[in-house]
Amino acid sequence: MAVAATALDSQRIFVASQWQLMWWRFRKHKVAVASAVVVVGFYLAVLGADFLAYSDPNASEAQRSLWWQSCRPLRCRSGTISCALRT
Fold first, then answer.
1. CA distances, 76 to each of 68, 69, 83, 86, 87 (Å)
2. In DSSP terms, which residues pair with 85 in a beta bridge?
3. Residue 66's closest CA among 39, 49, 85?
4. Is the pTM above the cut of 0.70?
């Protein structure tokens, strides 16, 4: 029985296409399958990026990122420096 199964498997390998041979080999490699799942997950996240975004991607962050330029330093009696926003 084992000889018949081996003959059937070897016959199956001889008539398989390159894609089938590559797929069979790929499925045996557990790390490759896990990394393929991760890559597919990344692609799904890219496709759903507009839905998953929590803010408008076209909104300007210029005012918030340059807040320190509108600041004038104040020196307290204790010697510490703090910021007071200019009006």
1. 19, 20, 11, 17, 20
2. 71
3. 85
4. no
Nearest-angstrom CA–CA distance, 45 and 59: 21
Query: Is the Cβ–Cβ distance between 1 and 7 less than 8 Å?
Result: no
Within 13 A of 81's CA, how many CA atoms are on the CB side?
A: 3
The residue with tokens 């084992």 is 2
Q: What is the pLDDT of residues 38-65, one digit of tens each?
A: 999 999 999 988 887 777 767 766 655 6
Could you tell me where the DSSP H helices lie in the chain? 2-15, 18-28, 30-47, 49-52, 62-65
How far is 6 from 31, CA to CA, in rounded Å?
Answer: 27
